[in-house]
């Protein structure tokens, strides 16, 4: 079932997230993110639609809850990588379906956020980040079996940061490596076909541990024809700590497994924040 909310032609911007499987923790996380983007007074961007990509095995009851919060639920077929080995974690086997965002050409820009993201501020300003401007495809080498990239593209992302980050802006182990938990794209069928060609490669040129993340890092490598651009780190912080709540950091979003924070330094303050947000979601009258 897809939401009955109709898409108007070429809406300029949209937010998107992704949900697969039936894990109630990820459903709660996705519901919270949609509510914050659509309804929560301190963080919503009511003029920007929210699209939730779901794979076919997501239960109808879960889809209904997301629709009731005002999102557009879009059922997408999984993508597979022939000849690729298993991902680093079994739960990542469906994440390549995120690439179907590039098929959604009714939008000019889409800002993707992983479902386990919570907001501290509205996110609509991310579309004004200089990194989201149109870029011309360069002359970098493309192998014969990778297809033809488009003449222009938009792809901006957050740099993968260190597991711990006391300083600001946060340090990163490799400034050329992006994290696919937050990115902005311009949908493009030709670029989607380029990604599909990459999925058909099997010679190890793409590290398959993190399937979508490493494919995007390869397709948009800094020395390639379509290098990715770095978003301001304030838009999305991985492995957050209570220091990321400091006003001078001006952080807009935090990314972690809130039911079991990956960063052992997250502290009780962030866990309390998450519980308060869940309580506000459950108490909200959003129908």
Note the main attributes of this structure.
287 residues; three-stranded mixed sheet; disordered N terminus; alpha/beta
Description:
The chain is α/β, with parallel strands linked by helices. It is 21% helix and 18% strand. The protein contains 5 helices and 12 strands. The strands form 3 sheets. The chain has a 7-stranded mixed β-sheet, sandwiched between helices. Helix 2 (60-68) links the parallel strand 2 (50-54) and strand 3. The chain is globular. The model is unreliable at 1-10 (pLDDT under 50).
Sequence stretches where pLDDT stays below 50 over 5 or more residues:
1-10
Helical residue percent?
10-25%
Q: Give the strand order, joined by hyphens, for the main sheet.
A: 3-2-1-4-9-8-10
Q: Given the C-alpha coordinates, what overall shape results?
A: globular
- Characterize the biggest β-sheet: 7 strands, mixed
- Cα(first) to Cα(last) distance is 19 Å
Query: Helical stretch count?
Result: 5
Arithmetic mean of pLDDT = 89
Radius of gyration: 18 Å
Structural class: alpha/beta
Which series of helices and strands comes N to C? EHEHEEEEEEEHHEEEH
The amount of beta strand, in percent, is: 15-25%
Number of strands: 12
List the helices and strands and how they pair.
Layout: E1 11-19, H1 24-38, E2 50-54, H2 60-68, E3 72-75, E4 107-113, E5 117-119, E6 135-136, E7 152-153, E8 155-159, E9 178-185, H3 189-199, H4 211-219, E10 229-230, E11 237-238, E12 253-255, H5 267-283
Parallel strand pairs: 1-2, 1-4, 2-3, 8-10, 11-12
Antiparallel strand pairs: 4-9, 5-12, 6-7, 8-9
């Amino acid at each position: 079932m897809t939401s009955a909310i109709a898409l108007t032609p070429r809406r300029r911007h949209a937010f998107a997230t992704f949900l697969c499987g039936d894990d109630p923790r990820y459903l709660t996380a996705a519901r919270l993110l949609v509510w914050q983007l659509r309804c929560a007074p301190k963080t919503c961007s009511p003029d920007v639609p929210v699209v939730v990509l779901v794979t076919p095995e997501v239960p109808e009851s879960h889809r209904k809850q997301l629709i009731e919060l005002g999102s557009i639920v879009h059922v997408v077929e999984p993508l597979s990588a022939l000849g690729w080995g298993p991902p680093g974690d079994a739960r990542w086997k469906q994440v390549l379906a995120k690439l179907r965002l590039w098929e959604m050409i009714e939008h000019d820009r889409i800002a993707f956020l992983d479902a386990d993201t919570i907001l501290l501020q509205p996110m609509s300003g991310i579309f004004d980040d200089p990194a989201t401007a149109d870029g011309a495809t360069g002359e970098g080498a493309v192998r014969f079996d990778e297809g033809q990239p488009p003449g222009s593209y938009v792809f901006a992302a957050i740099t993968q940061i260190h597991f711990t980050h006391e300083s600001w802006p946060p340090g990163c182990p490799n400034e050329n490596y992006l994290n696919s938990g937050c990115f902005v794209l311009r949908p493009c069928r030709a670029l989607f076909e380029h990604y599909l060609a990459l999925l058909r490669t099997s010679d190890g040129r793409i590290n398959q541990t993190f399937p979508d993340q490493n494919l995007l890092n390869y397709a948009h490598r800094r020395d390639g024809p379509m290098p990715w651009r770095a978003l301001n780190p304030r838009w999305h912080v991985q492995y957050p700590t209570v220091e990321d709540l400091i006003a001078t950091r001006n952080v807009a979003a935090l990314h972690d497994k809130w039911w079991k924070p990956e960063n052992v330094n997250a502290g009780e303050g962030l866990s309390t924040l998450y519980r308060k947000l869940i309580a506000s979601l459950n108490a909200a009258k959003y129908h």
